[in-house]
């Protein structure tokens, strides 16, 4: 009887660093939310002011959740260097000293759109699907292995392109938008690449099995789905068929 030699199959073999990164970037090429019809309408100047208000109001839910998920991630690690690096993400959004941070810059946007700031912060008018999607992301970061949780932030690899498109498109097409209103996106043009570079190198170094690598790739898919689901909800409520849930924001109401 011939001896059966058990080896490592191709499916089990660890991906090389370049191949691993390429697999992550392929997720963005396939399903990042820049491809969603709602964003094409937004950037192309095809939405009414009320529809832009609905987008900004709902997106605030996501913006306000980012520092919460980052604080949750930091609480899970004993790695001081990871905490030292990750903490600036919270400062970027919440602000520190005289730097007001990304959440305040987002509120400048909603202010300019004529939305009451207290109403925006309350999130009372947000779509139920928006709230569910955002909280699913926070729970994912709390519950998944640390390296996988870090990987879920890697949609930031794809963010600068959508920010550039948004800045140009909204400034060109909406008279109620100006440079000050676009300050959030302009700041993210430098912040997002810095954050993404660190997170990418971290998972390359710490995903030590093929199974972990695949889980990291799936984490990026999950995050893309979170972003896509939010736009699905906006499109369904405010574009077509226009089914706004009870209690949600109603333009011109």
UniProtKB/TrEMBL annotation:
Belongs to the PqqC family. It is an enzyme of class 1 (oxidoreductase). This is Pyrroloquinoline-quinone synthase. Its EC number is 1.3.3.11. Keywords: Oxidoreductase, PQQ biosynthesis. Ring cyclization and eight-electron oxidation of 3a-(2-amino-2-carboxyethyl)-4,5-dioxo-4,5,6,7,8,9-hexahydroquinoline-7,9-dicarboxylic-acid to PQQ. InterPro entries: Haem_Oase-like_multi-hlx (IPR016084), PqqC (IPR011845), PqqC-like (IPR039068), Thiaminase-2/PQQC (IPR004305). GO terms for biological process: pyrroloquinoline quinone biosynthetic process. Coiled coil: none annotated. It catalyses: 6-(2-amino-2-carboxyethyl)-7,8-dioxo-1,2,3,4,7,8-hexahydroquinoline-2,4-dicarboxylate + 3 O2 = pyrroloquinoline quinone + 2 H2O2 + 2 H2O + H(+). Residues 23-232 form the Thiaminase-2/PQQC domain. The gene is pqqC. One of its GO terms (molecular function) is pyrroloquinoline-quinone synthase activity. Pathway: Cofactor biosynthesis; pyrroloquinoline quinone biosynthesis. It comes from Hyphomicrobium sulfonivorans. HAMAP family: PQQ_syn_PqqC (MF_00654).
């Amino acid at each position: 009887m011939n001896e059966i030699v058990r080896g490592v199959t191709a499916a089990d073999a660890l991906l090389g660093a370049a191949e691993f990164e390429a697999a992550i970037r392929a997720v963005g090429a396939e399903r990042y939310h820049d491809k969603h019809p709602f964003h094409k309408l937004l950037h192309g100047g095809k939405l009414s002011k009320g529809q832009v208000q609905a987008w900004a109001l709902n997106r605030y839910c996501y913006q306000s959740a980012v520092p919460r998920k980052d604080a949750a991630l930091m609480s899970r690690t004993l790695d001081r260097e990871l905490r030292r690096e990750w903490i600036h993400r919270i400062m970027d959004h919440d602000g520190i000293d005289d730097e007001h941070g990304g959440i305040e810059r987002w509120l400048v946007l909603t202010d300019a759109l004529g939305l009451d700031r207290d109403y925006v912060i309350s999130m009372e008018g947000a779509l139920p699907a928006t709230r569910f999607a955002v909280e699913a992301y926070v729970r994912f970061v709390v519950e998944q292995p640390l390296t996988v949780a870090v990987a879920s932030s890697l949609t930031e690899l794809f963010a600068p392109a959508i920010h550039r498109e948004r800045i140009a498109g909204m400034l060109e097409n909406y008279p109620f938008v100006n440079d000050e209103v676009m300050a959030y996106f302009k700041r993210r043009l430098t912040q997002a690449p810095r954050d993404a570079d660190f997170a990418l190198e971290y998972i390359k170094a710490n995903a030590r099995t093929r199974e972990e690598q695949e889980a990291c790739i799936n984490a990026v898919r999950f995050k893309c789905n979170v972003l896509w689901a939010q736009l699905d909800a906006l499109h369904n409520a405010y574009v077509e068929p226009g089914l706004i849930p009870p209690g949600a924001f109603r333009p011109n109401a």
